[in-house]
Design the sequence.
């Protein structure tokens, strides 16, 4: 096993893999599959938590020759273990730490980020692939529950996009909805293109107070009811927001603390991934078996930006992969911890 792993590790180094050279828009399917196996073998050796999990399953990393044979690490491991490849012996102050949201007393996931530039490259390039240059937008962020925390990966991403927009009016809003309305109307009257990205409960609270019509606006919800509103199906939620903001569709972002990449939906809850990210759907009763496209099951995510942690994550989300490779999130497993969009019944 050592010879194989070292061989692949040498390949990774030659590719400038750890600098994120593989995070690119023209990554082909064959390149993606090869990278998956290379990263798996590296992490099977260099990530103690993942390595121990693989041994527990009785999987020989050398015998893994296809993506569907790679074990996916249950996301709960990020709550109780330091999931880090190579640098697990370093003190916490050598990392950027992102933590999940949660209610009082709840164990929160922690993602140890050794090289923050990988995250920055992933979210900037992912955004440009789906929406173009951030400079084209005035970016308004209505993320009160996240803004109140300093360790949110979502806040880090949106802050980076706001800075990249180079628009004077771009910025964060807490609960100052009236100021947000005045800003949107001012931008509308000047013909500015707006991206409003918000946590779900805050967008709904805004929509209950104000209506905006005629603005060149993209409204993007990130999930997150946090018990603040009654549960709603996605279609009902999106209709209310479309009416309040005068838009034809509501966009969505799919990301989480344990990932460094995001998928985006331009409407109807249909998400697309960037080339270095994939979603697979496992059988609800057998986590090591995958279902065919169009059938629902548990969502597994491959995120090749997760070089220094684990690139293969078994989430607690339920969804399906559509025939064109896009995916839809349908809900959460029963008795799973409350996180973000699981207050939203889909």
Sequence:
């Amino acid at each position: 096993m050592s010879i194989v792993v070292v061989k692949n590790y040498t390949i990774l180094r030659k590719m400038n893999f750890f600098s994120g050279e593989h995070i690119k828009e023209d990554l082909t399917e064959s390149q993606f599959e090869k990278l998956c196996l290379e990263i798996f073998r590296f992490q099977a050796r260099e990530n103690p938590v993942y390595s121990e999990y693989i041994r527990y399953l009785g999987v020989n990393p050398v015998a893994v020759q296809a993506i569907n044979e790679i074990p996916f690490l249950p996301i709960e491991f990020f709550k109780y273990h330091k999931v880090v490849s190579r640098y697990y012996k370093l003190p916490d102050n050598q990392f950027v730490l992102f933590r999940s949201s949660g209610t009082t007393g709840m164990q929160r996931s922690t993602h140890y980020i050794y090289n923050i530039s990988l995250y920055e490259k992933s979210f900037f390039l992912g955004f440009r692939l789906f929406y173009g240059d951030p400079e084209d937008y005035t970016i308004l962020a209505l993320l009160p529950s996240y803004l109140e925390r300093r360790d949110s990966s979502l806040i880090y991403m949106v802050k980076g996009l706001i800075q990249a927009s180079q628009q004077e009016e771009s910025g964060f809003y807490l609960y100052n909805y009236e100021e947000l309305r005045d800003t949107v109307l001012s931008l509308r009257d000047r013909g500015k293109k707006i991206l409003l990205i918000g946590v779900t409960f805050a967008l709904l609270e805004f929509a209950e107070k104000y209506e905006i019509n005629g603005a060149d606006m993209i409204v993007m919800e990130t999930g997150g009811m946090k018990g603040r509103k009654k549960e709603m199906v996605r279609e009902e939620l999106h209709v209310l927001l479309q009416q309040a903001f005068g838009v034809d569709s509501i966009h969505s972002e799919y990301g989480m603390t344990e990932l460094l990449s995001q998928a985006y939906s331009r409407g109807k809850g249909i998400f697309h991934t960037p080339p270095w990210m994939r979603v697979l759907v496992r059988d609800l009763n057998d986590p090591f078996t995958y279902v065919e496209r169009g059938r629902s099951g548990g969502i597994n995510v491959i995120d090749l930006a997760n070089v220094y942690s684990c690139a293969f994550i078994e989430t607690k989300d339920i969804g399906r992969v559509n025939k064109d490779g896009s995916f839809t999130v349908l809900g959460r497993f029963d008795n799973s911890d409350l996180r973000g969009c699981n207050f939203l019944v889909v």
Observations:
- Residues 1-15, 337-346 have pLDDT under 50 and may be disordered.
- The two ends are 44 Å apart (CA to CA).
- The chain is about 35% helix and 20% strand.
